[in-house]
Amino acid sequence: MFPESFATARLRAERLLPEHFDAIRAMDSDALYMGRLGGTRTESQTREYLTRNLKHWDQYDCGLWMLRDLDGAIAGRCVLRHLDVEGTDEVELGYGLHARYWGKGLATEVAKELLRLGRTALARD
Question: Which end of the chain, N or C, is surrounded by fewer C-beta atoms within 10 Å?
Fold first, then answer.
């Protein structure tokens, strides 16, 4: 079972909720943020993305977390989610941070914690 929230030394993560739409929309419409994540999304695509990720939490008890810095500002998002890859259940680890948080080791920090959570909750190595 995955936690609804967790923390690293410099970030706080909280389970995705419908109230996060504006924060997700800000990320999805930012060309720099979305540059390596498939490009920007329309508002409709963001709504579909939010709905899909909320459903994933309901179905698998894991998914997307919103990341906040220690001041409470949205820093980005991270994810552990199930994916069907050619008929095999795989788990994706991912993250995205606003550009002002780049180059500070935060991606590594959150990825290490996601890996730890995934290994613990899924009993995978």
Answer: C
CA 37, 40, 43, 48: dihedral to nearest 10 degrees? -30
User: What global pTM score does this model have?
Assistant: 0.92
- C-beta neighbour count of 86 within 10 angstroms: 5
- Rounded to the nearest 10°, the torsion over CA 66, 70, 73, 76 is -40
* 62-69 mean pLDDT: 96
* Phi–psi pair at 69, nearest 5 degrees: -80, 180
Q: Positive or negative CA dihedral for 122, 28, 19, 95?
A: positive
User: Which of these ranges, 5-9, 16-20, 42-46, 90-94, has the smallest mean pLDDT?
Assistant: 90-94
Residue located via tokens 């919103």: 66
Q: Residue 120: what pLDDT?
A: 85
Long-range (24+ apart) CB contacts under 8 A made by 30-35 are 30/98, 32/99, 33/76, 33/96, 33/98, 33/99, 34/96
Distance CA 11, CA 74 (A): 10
